[in-house]
Amino acid sequence: MASDENEIEISPISSELSPLESLLKEVFASASKHNWTTKLPTHDKIQQIKQLIIKFQTCTKYANPTKIWEIDVDLYLIRLENIFPTMYITKCTLQQAIHLNITQIPLVPHITSSISELDKDTLRISSLFSKFPEASPFVFEVQTDVNAPYISATRAYKTQQTIINILLIHAPLIPMSTRKALEAYYAALSEQNSDNENSSPEGFAKVYTLAYMLRF
Question: How far is the C-alpha of 140 from the C-alpha of 125, rounded, in Å?
Fold first, then answer.
């Protein structure tokens, strides 16, 4: 029997990949290494991101479904032309995209060690934006660099601290209440960091080594 012309063919997703990693793999599948570039000026990147959000919210007919995905309310995963492997994640309302100029929307790079780590850090950034929705507008430029230090899953709170610190330093429009909440969360992560270092096998090894050295 001939298949229906309107039937949508769904490709199976490998169980070894997370949904976001599968999306990233699909997004970049057709990218050519020969046209990679990271030399687009920051103001041009922000302008393109603003336009994508505006079109996505007001001009569905002209929105590009291969470049922008809304993964939560006013939270977007964005790909810009010929910038690979880089993803942009932003918390930005329609009104902010329309009325704020490019100097009022900070864009800060966040470096990961691999596509897999890009996937994980994108999820961490998303969860922080969901936890602190007033941290808007802000754009993270999540890039991969094989020379970047790898952070294990058991030390993921270190990455969260890095992300929170970036927001505290570079996001000028965060309300004071949100800033205090971010600072409190940062302090809690620091305490967790200290507790885990002291209780982990790595921590015990350091203490044992120090005690052994002091014996002599």
Answer: 8
